[in-house]
């Protein structure tokens, strides 16, 4: 593995959070010999999120989370820009319902 890509994967390891979050989620990233592992916990109440679809392309870590208490699903992209900073892109899904005509 080229040195630059190896450094970036090593930079990912540890616990990450968004400091100004109302309900902070902590992502703890570790590596096994074959893959990366992510534990996600809502720091405000200790709820553990289910993490799936983990992929690392050498630049960006992608994964999905599910919050069991409310079935809130997210897709996450984490791009490490230094040993202590990353950019987190978050996509979430909401189930919308159509309002019948005349009830708006």
Note the topology:
Blueprint: H1 3-12, E1 14-16, E2 25-31, E3 36-42, E4 48-56, E5 60-67, E6 72-80, E7 86-92
Antiparallel strand pairs: 1-2, 2-3, 3-4, 4-5, 5-6, 6-7
Brief overview:
With 104 residues, this protein is mostly beta strands. It contains one helix and seven strands.
Question: What would you say this structure looks like, in words?
Answer:
The protein has one helix at 3-12, and strands at residues 14-16, 25-31, 36-42, 48-56, 60-67, 72-80, 86-92. It has a seven-stranded antiparallel beta sheet. The chain is elongated. The chain contains one helix and seven strands.
Output the helix-strand order. HEEEEEEE
DSSP helix fraction: under 10%
Count of structural domains: 1
Count up the helices: 1
Cα Rg: 17 Å
The chain-level mean pLDDT equals 89
Low-pLDDT stretches are none
Q: Which structural category fits the helices and strands? A: mainly beta
Question: What's the overall geometry?
Answer: elongated
The number of distinct β-strands equals: 7
Major sheet strand order: 1-2-3-4-5-6-7
Instruction: Please give the alpha-carbon distance between the first and last residues.
Output: 58 Å
Proportion of residues in extended strands: over 45%
Can you summarize the main beta sheet?
7 strands, antiparallel
Keywords:
single chain, 104 residues, mainly beta, 7-stranded antiparallel beta sheet, 1 helix, 10% helix
């Amino acid at each position: 593995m080229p040195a630059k890509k190896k450094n970036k994967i090593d930079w990912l390891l540890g616990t990450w959070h968004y400091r100004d979050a109302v309900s902070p989620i902590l992502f703890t990233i570790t590596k096994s010999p074959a893959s990366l592992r992510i534990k996600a916990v809502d720091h405000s109440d200790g709820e553990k999120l289910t993490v799936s679809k983990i992929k690392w392309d050498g630049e960006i870590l992608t994964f999905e989370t599910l919050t069991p208490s409310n079935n809130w699903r997210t897709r996450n992209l984490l791009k490490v820009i230094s040993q202590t900073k990353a950019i987190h892109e978050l996509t979430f899904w909401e189930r919308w319902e159509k309002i019948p005509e005349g009830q708006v």
